[in-house]
Amino acid sequence: MKKLATLAFALAAAAASPVLAGETPAPEGAKVYFVNLKDGDKVSGPVKIVFGLSGMGVAPAGTDKKNTGHHHVLINRPELGKGEDGEEEFNLNLPADDNHKHFGGGQTEATLDLPAGQHTLQLVLGDKDHIPHNPPIVSPRITITVE
């Protein structure tokens, strides 16, 4: 009876846990980058961002196709893997909030309404479930100033 209760608890905990990464491989050399922005740029708002990707293809969220993913922009937060959750972030679904913008429709550019001032941006490619690939495909974090 004790084994059955332990098994039931483990199954319930697993069902409540976030989906873990490491299941969607990324090809060697795949890169995500900003096409039209670089660190230190001064721009006018609204800010247009063009997403670059090499070594992989873009597919909408939910699409289970080898060597594809969709874009996410991290805004005004630590580099992925260096935040409050550290390395665990590479294993979790990326949240959807003011600091994490999802482009699950397969978009390759976006326009963001950022207030005047300095902002940090980082691109992250997510798999069909919004989880970074293994290894994670992330751009360097850049700082821009919206004038």
Kindly identify the CATH topology: Immunoglobulin-like
CATH class category name: Mainly Beta
Helix tally equals 1
Strand proportion, as a percent range, falls in 25-35%
- So what's the oligomer here? single chain
Helix content class: 10-25%
Report the span from N to C terminus: 66 Å
What structural class should be given to the helix and strand makeup? mainly beta
Report the CATH superfamily: Immunoglobulins
Question: What is the mean pLDDT?
Answer: 86
**How are helices and strands ordered from N to C?**
HEEEEEEEEE
Poorly predicted runs of 5 or more residues: 1-21
What would you note in describing this structure?
By secondary structure, the protein is mainly beta. It has one domain (2-146): Sandwich (Immunoglobulin-like), CATH 2.60.40. It is 10% helix and 32% strand. The protein is built from one helix and nine strands. It has one helix at residues 2-16; strands spanning 31-34, 42-43, 47-54, 57-58, 68-75, 100-103, 109-112, 117-126, 142-146. The strands form two sheets. Strands 2, 4, 5, 6, 8 and 9 form a six-stranded mixed β-sheet that branches. The radius of gyration is 17 Å and the shape is globular. The model is unreliable at 1-21 (pLDDT under 50).
Task: Please describe the structure with a list of short key phrases separated by commas or semicolons.
147 residues, mainly beta, Immunoglobulin-like, six-stranded mixed β-sheet, three-stranded antiparallel β-sheet, 1 helix, 32% strand, disordered N terminus
